[in-house]
Input
Amino acid sequence: MYNILYVDDEPDLLELGTEFLESDGTFAVDTFPSACEALDRLQTTRYDAIVSDYKMPDMDGIAFLTTLRAGGNTTPFIIFTGKGQEDVVIEALNNGADSYLKKDDKTQSRFAELAYWIRHAISQKRDDQVLKESEEKYRFLIENSYDIIYTITREGVFSFISPSWTLILGHPMAEVEGKSYRIFVHPEDVPLCCELLQRSLLVGNKPQDIEYRIRHVDGSWRWHLSQSVPLYDDAGSLIGFEGVARDITERKAAEEALQQANRKLCLLSGIARHDINNQLLVLTGYLTLLEKKQPDASFGRYYRKIHAAAERISEVIQFTSEYEKIGITAPTWQDVRKLVDSAAIQAPLGTIHVINDLPAGMEVFADSLIARLFYNLMDNAARHGGTITMIRFSAEERDGDRIIICEDDGEGVPAADKTKIFERGFGKNTGLGLTISREILSITGITIVENGEPGAGARFEMTVPGHGCRLAGVKNS
Output
């Protein structure tokens, strides 16, 4: 129920208006014959709306209104009067009236119209208050966020930046707004930023991110991670882009230090593997000579065991060489259709036919060694598929994730071996391919399982998280 203050110097109209307005239980009406008495009541009582006559003794409706507004009272105010001159209407609206309604002899319809405008004014007031609070909250977030919030025109000119720009990069806001982002972004990174904006147009409101260097006021370069989405007007025309940028300079420095440490470790382990392989070559060479000089059959079993142990050492060294490459470089977006096509050329497939049904332009965020994964899958299929004639790659969406499928028409994987095939050392050869493949995928949260039908072909499913897959917008060839 809404509480209404109704002011009019005609007692009969006050009584009649109260009857009409309170008839449906929506309003509770307090009446006063003068604006002065109403002002006294407003000192102690809050109302949802005020209805006032214009022509009254002592203080007219507009003077009543201006007094309220001057005191900070923003209660919705409706002038309801018999005077309908245009100058009075303009004066009322200019002084903050929410509506102006003229009385006439159509009592019932006029009070019904008054009830409508009261509801409208109250609703509008509440909507304005919600909007104001939302704007204040948004302004607070922008002004106090450590991230830089910005908008740029379609030409790349900053139309707005948050105060955090000055805090992080030192440039006064006035020296940035109205300027092109190209002035501040490192020249080598400008093409990447252009690509980001173009990609934003292809994917709509899905945020796109990029890392780039941006100039600090002291001349140094800071690393930023930025996300942006396109902005459109009511007609659907592009007017610019909105984005958020975060300073990641310390993170990039830590990544560089980690990469440097990894390079040193790789160098050390590479030297160690080289020396071990040399000694292993010496060992197997002397073992071969010993077999020739001591061809005693009773020692044959021991010779074979020593050779097997040497081969196993060699396999372990090979595994460490492959494994240390995983995660050395940062994951990147990679076109899986092109990777499959490339692996199909390199893999020893013989007469096996590869069908690539992956969408053109489909990219996954993965370790750079993912190309090795597709090679391993084809190589394993060719080695162990028996009567295999075909390998097919395809993709489907499932529960918001993207599933990349590699299936063939070979002998398949026995049910008891479906999880074992990913263990190091399992299988007819080294057992390293699928183990390394699983580790390559796990870097960016991609999982792989085999769930084909034994005897009807193998089927490997790689589940890519929804955020780790995108379509670059390339047309199918």
User: Anything to note?
Assistant: The chain has four domains: 2-142, 145-247, 252-323, 332-471. The chain has a mean pLDDT of 85.
